[in-house]
Structure formats: C-alpha cells, structure tokens
Amino acid sequence: MALIVQKYGGTSVGSIDRMRNVAARIKRTRDAGNQVVAVVSAMSGVTDGLIKMAKDLSGNPCERELDVLLATGEQQSIALVTMALRELGIDAVSITGRQAGIHTTGSHTRGRILNMDPTLMRGFLDEGKTLVVAGFQGITPDGMIHTLGRGGSDLTAIAVAASLKADVCQILTDVDGVYTCDPRVVKNARKLPEISYDEMLEMASSGSKVMQSRSVEFAKKFGVVFEVRSSLNDNPGTLVLEEHPNMENVVIRGVSIERSQARVTITGIPDEPGMSGRILGALGEAEINLDMIISNIAHDGFARHSFTMHSSDLGRAQAALKPLLAELSQSKIETEAGIAKLSVVGIGMRSHSGVAAKMFKALGDAGINIGMISTSEIKIAVTVEESRIEDAARAVHNAFKLDQAPV
Amino acid sequence: MALIVQKYGGTSVGSIDRMRNVAARIKRTRDAGNQVVAVVSAMSGVTDGLIKMAKDLSGNPCERELDVLLATGEQQSIALVTMALRELGIDAVSITGRQAGIHTTGSHTRGRILNMDPTLMRGFLDEGKTLVVAGFQGITPDGMIHTLGRGGSDLTAIAVAASLKADVCQILTDVDGVYTCDPRVVKNARKLPEISYDEMLEMASSGSKVMQSRSVEFAKKFGVVFEVRSSLNDNPGTLVLEEHPNMENVVIRGVSIERSQARVTITGIPDEPGMSGRILGALGEAEINLDMIISNIAHDGFARHSFTMHSSDLGRAQAALKPLLAELSQSKIETEAGIAKLSVVGIGMRSHSGVAAKMFKALGDAGINIGMISTSEIKIAVTVEESRIEDAARAVHNAFKLDQAPV
C-alpha cells in the first residue's frame, strides 16, 4: 500500500461542489489501494477577503495577527473537505499546521520550515485514516500561529511528504504538467515526462510560475520526488526529481519567457571599491528584486552597471538611485521598458557546447535583436524587445526541436 | 491597577466599524488605569454562514470537524480586534482558546471546561499587553479543537476571569442589565443593581435569556463576580454574585415570563413502578426538553402526569408517546398549546411566607386563571393562558412593588 500526498490549491477547493470533486478524487486514490494525505489551501477568494478586512482596519496590519487571521482560511477548508470525505464513507480527519507538527522560524507571514514532527499524523495513518492537512501554516517555537507566505501550501505538501516518507507527492493544479514552453505561446510545446530539480528551479526563476522556487529547493534538499499534474483529469503530469544520467541526453529541457521587464543602466561610475555595493544597496533597501545584473569597465575608466527588473518597479528604482546619482557628477542613468526575457534551460548544457551559438543564430535568423545576455551553468538568458518575445520563443523552441520527444 | 475581563458578543464585533468601537472602549478602560482581557465572539452571521456550508456538504456533519470549522469564526475576530487595538496604539495580542489554556472534556460541539492553564496569558499580562481571547473554544486532552456550544463565549469570559483571578468580569451585551421583569412588557420594570447566582439561575431557566445557566453555575462554583452591562453605553449594569445578608431584605427579586409553552397530560397510567421512567424516557430519547413536571395519583387508582415544553416540541412529543399509549388501554393523552409560564424568583422567599398567596391573589384579582403550579426553594412558577401573560406579569410586578427600590 503506497502513501500518496496530494496537494489541492484554492481553485480546486473553491466551492462546495469542487470540494466534493476533490473528495471523490481522494476516494478514487484510496480505492486503488493507497493511503492518502491531502494538503489543501484556503478556498479561492477567502484569503483575499480576510486581507481586505485587515486593510480596512489598518494600513499596515500587525503581521502576527495577519497570521492568526489568514490561517483560518485553510482551517475552514480542511474541516469542509473532511466532511465531504466522510459523506463518501471515508474515515477522514482534519489536521491543522500545528497538529501536522510543522515547526517554523522567521518573520510572521513569511515563515520557513524548521523541522517536522509527524507523530500525530503517523498515529492517525496507523489507524487507517485519511488525513486532510491545512497548507500554508505552522507554529513558531513559542507556539504562535505562523503562515508560510506565497506558495506555502506547496511547501507544506513537500514537507509532509518528506516527514512521512511518502511514496508519491502530487501537486494538483490548473496546469497538467511542466511544458517545454508555455503552450499558449508555442502551439507544439510538449509536456515533459520529467525534469530535474535544478532545471525546475531555473524555469521557476525564468517566468514559468508552476511553483515557487523554495518548494522545489525544499524537495531537492530532502529528496522528495513530486509530480505536477492537473486536478481536472487523470493524465500523468511531470515528475520533478534528482537528475539521472539519461536526462543528460537532452541538451535543452525547456524555454521560458518573462514579460514586462525593464532595464536600468548606470554609466560613468567611478571605478572605486564599494561603488557596486552602494548601488545595489540602494535598490535592495527599496525592496526591488533585480534579475539580471551585468557590470563592466568601459574603456574610459568608468564602470557601467545594467540591471533588469519588473517594469512596475522602474519608477521606484529611479527614485531610489536619485540621491546617489546626485553625488556622482559623471554618472548618467538610462532606462528601457518594454523588454522581455527569454531563457533556455537544461542540465545537458554542462556537457554540450554550442548551445549559445545555436540560440543566437535562431534569434538572428528570425530578425530579433538580443539585448543583455546572462548565463548560469544550466541556463542562458537574453533580453529582447517585448513585442518580439513570442516569435523569439517559437524560433528557439524550433531550433532545439523541443516539440519532438528525445530518442 | 485592576484586571478587568470584558466579554463582547457577536453583534458587538459584527462589522469593522463595530470592532473599532470595541477597541475604543477597551482603550478607555485601559486609559483609566486597568489591565484588560477582552473575550470576543465570532462576528454575527459568520458562524451561521459556516454552518450553512457544512450542512450543504452533509446532512449530519461530523462534530469533530464542525468544531474545527466553527472555531475559525472567533479566531478571525481576535485577530481583527487586536489589529484595531494596535491601530489605537495599544500593545495588544490575540489568544486562541488553546493558547488561553482552556482544557475541555465532553462531546465535540458541546465541550465543558475541565481546567485552565493561564500561563501564557499571565506572561503577556506581565509584559503589560492587552489580551484579546477567542471565546467559545478550547482543546481536548489529546490536543483537538473543541467548541463550547451555545453561550460558550460567556463561559470563556467567566473561566478566564477565574483563572486570572480578575478583579471584575463584565459581560457586555445588548441589554444593560438584569431587570425585575422584561421592560418591553412591564414599563416600570427596574434594573437590579445586584442579583445572587441562584436567583440568576432561576431567572435564566424561567425565560430571562440574558445568560446560559452553565455560565452562571461556573461563576458560582469559582466565585467569579460578574456584571451584565450594555456594550452601547457606560451605565452600570447588574452585578451577579454570591448572596449576602442584605439581599434577603427583598422577598422577590424579579418576575420572568416564558411564552409559547405547551402542556401534555397523560391520564389513566397504571400505578406501577417504572411507568414514569418509561414515559420520561420516551420523551428524553426524542430530545424533548421538559420544563415543569407534575405527577399525582387520581382517586380512581390511576396516575396522571403533566409536563410543559416549548410548543414547537408538541408534535414530536405526541409521536414519541404513541407506542407507549398503544400499550396502555386506559391511558389518554390531552394536550394544550397557547399557554405561558410566569415565575417569581427571590432568595428572600426562604425566610418569608405568604409569597404564593400574594401572587395567586394578584392573578385572581386580575381575572387570570392559574393552570399548573411548580415551586422550588426560591421560585414559584405557574402557567396561564398565553394571551394573558403580559397582564399577569404586570399584576404580579405591581403586587410585589418591584418598581420601587427596596429601602
């Protein structure tokens, strides 16, 4: 008898009818001879409604209290899904984050999992019960309610699977797997049967928002093999696991795109120690997430730095840099919005050369200009004009024949 | 510095604006030099909405899961009221039932308080914080969420006051105290400055629905003096406390009425051991709450029993008695709806005679017929026709001069 952890998001449990569907799916998994631990999110809309009430009361609600408030959303879901299961004759029991033994650390509303104590869950499983666990929540070392921030329910599912040594962890969502590229952009994109943790991480940080990076990192750290699959059908999804030798036969696993990017370039920076730190520090204090960062020394002896960020951060970035630029008489700031990022990702890159050349040729043949370039061991990312990003994705996807399953 | 426990019901915290009013009131109490522990209910409507979702999923929702579901209502209130307090600059912190150390026993949805561990609350109070405690909830010995049933938040407030040895416990509600009679019926009814636990218990069981009996019993058991007062103004309310010698100067504390009563009389019952048990057993199994119970032996050698109950239970009572009556050929059932109950309550009755005579004379003078009569040490209750209950209340209220403060 296998132990299967299934994670259902807010849309999957978004109404009483949908909860019945979730219960039916859990029952099917159970009837097939498995034990099931379901991890559920708050009903879609509930969390937003609670945040709205908090914001009505306070411009800056106390984060400890936000955790107490928001944790009720998942608590309602576990009780209701458990009732739906019991209505189908399944001996189910709800489990809060505290009861699941999810011990956390870090600031309120942004908890990190410190360790897991699955004693209570294990006891219920030994009695043959089906468990419905609240995602997104845990407790601090002094017993306070703590939430895990965005994507927290995925993290709960991975952590529960790790602590119970589950055989399978299924992340059931509104996409039916990880694709070689966004199928809305590249019609012949192909669902990947498997992808390594590292590739998944690079895809996540490159705009493929199937899962948050930290859940994938947690799974990698604890060796939890998980599957991303649809909550709407029974098709196999994509397995995410540690890389194995066969995987390297594929040079490129996928192409990901990220729109609405902007570039800031600062020229004429004195070539002195500490200057980069001051610039990045000013942007960090303004809580601007930088993506690509490129620095070099120009032939005039001054340095220049370029960064990309989400275009909605551009105004705040300019404001944050203003005081520093006022000090540096030679410096100028140059900005460009309306760009997008294209990345190719694959662990096969480590042992294959010529990937960049092939990618750049494909873009050149399509008449698409490349802006910034940045690389990691298993990724090459470039910026292009946002108006050409879909053409760029199709050109690169074709060049690497990603529509064809590897032999 | 006094420690004051204040209980706010669902109507008092029924909207964001009302929560702000509650916070302002707590701040005033705090500014007057007191420490405050507020016990709050779920926002009015929230609990009903949750129950509706549960009933949509199941005709008979699992009670363990109902507890998990319903406890979220109070958890939301404590977080929001705490945010409102912090917005006023008060260093407040929310406390769930578990964190308040409310340990319970009994069935799910109908918990009883077993003991209290106020360690966490005490620690926060020592740091000078204001506490906002979730009413209506606690935890079972094995750490499961448990709710306390109807009136549970009053019970929480009394228990918190007992465990913290609070100086004052205020039950803030939509009435501004306990009256000699319902002021909507008797215009010159007078607010009582104080009432003994036992009188309050008899009033509660006689239709004065200010508080549930078990909260009063709990307060009596642990010697918690509490005050019933309005959440809408700062007028003093009614203190509920152990009787003291001065209280006995008043013969009758108040008059209470209960409408929509019905009577069932069974005649011709064989005078055999066990017959009363079988009759009461049949009604108990049908979960019918009996109020007055009168039995006697008629001169024909058969017994007759009369009971009163809420008139909405009459049909079920008749159905429940049918099998038994089919066995007893001499028995007949007679029912009467459209009656009401009038009670006079006062500990002074113990040392004063003639109370019943005065009461019956007042009713007779008003031309009101008395049906059943039942008495306890500090209460005399009678049934009258429901159409005459208000006249009856005014006649008795006048006869005992309850509109005048005792000298």
Number of contiguous helices of chain A: 11
Integer tally of domains of chain A? 2
The CATH topology of the largest domain in chain A is given as Carbamate kinase
Radius of gyration of chain A: 24 Å
How many beta-strand elements of chain A? 18
Describe the structure.
With 407 residues, the first copy, chain A, is of the alpha/beta class. Chain A folds into 2 domains: 3-173, Carbamate kinase; 255-399, VC0802-like, CATH 3.30.2130.10. In chain A, 34% of the residues lie in helices and 27% in strands. Chain A is built from 11 helices and 18 strands. Chain A has helices at residues 16-31, 46-57, 63-87, 119-126, 152-163, 197-204, 213-222, 275-285, 314-327, 355-365, 389-399; strands at 3-8, 35-40, 92-95, 102-105, 112-116, 130-134, 137-139, 145-147, 168-173, 194-196, 226-230, 238-241, 254-269, 293-297, 303-310, 332-345, 373-376, 379-385. In chain A, the strands form 4 sheets. An 8-stranded mixed sheet of chain A has the order 3-6-2-1-9-11-12-10, sandwiched between helices. In chain A, strands 14-15-13-16-18-17 form a 6-stranded antiparallel sheet. In chain A, a hairpin with a 5-residue loop joins strand 7 and strand 8 (145-147). The longest helix of chain A is centred in the first third of the chain and has 25 residues, at 63-87. The model of chain A has no long low-confidence stretch (mean pLDDT 93). The A-B interface holds A 16, 19-20, 50, 53-54, 56-58, 61-62, 64-66, 68-69, 71-72, 75-76, 78-80, 82-84, 86-87, 93-94, 96, 99, 120, 143, 145 and B 16, 19-20, 50, 53-54, 56-58, 61-62, 64-66, 68-69, 71-72, 75-76, 78-80, 82-84, 86-87, 93-94, 96, 99, 120, 143, 145.
